[in-house]
Description:
Blueprint: H1 14-31, E1 33-37, H2 38-57, H3 60-69, H4 73-86, E2 95-102, E3 109-115, H5 118-149
Antiparallel strand pairs: 1-3, 2-3
Amino acid sequence: MRHRKGGYKLQRDPSARRALLRGLTTSVILHERVRTTVTRAKAVRPRVERVITLAKRDTLHARRQAAAYLFEPRAVKKLFDSIGPRFADRAGGYTRIVRLGPRQGDGAETAILELLGTRLEKKAEDKKKRREARMQKQSDETQADSESLS
């Protein structure tokens, strides 16, 4: 019986499972979203929330704890510089799991695990870039038209 043995095994031995979860956590922090299976997303979600809670404290001890868990120093820097302050006034629930459907190769149920606010920020940023590109193109066209008339 597995009484009080919570968590997901993910068909791996403990060291491989820990490495997988640490790697996924690092990827979520760096890229703010990751595409994976639903089971992996559910397994890594509490760990991502835990390191974000560490970032909200922003003490030397919290930085060292996060650095001991995450694989890349730039993930620790991003976590404490941008992600922690972003969620400073939020009391948990920093992530969202969006189901995508079955994977093409093996039919595994896939999902996106993303930090809240990522989608809106990316859309606004992309919209701004497209607008600037459109304005630049229009100014180039008007400049070319005026030169051809001269």
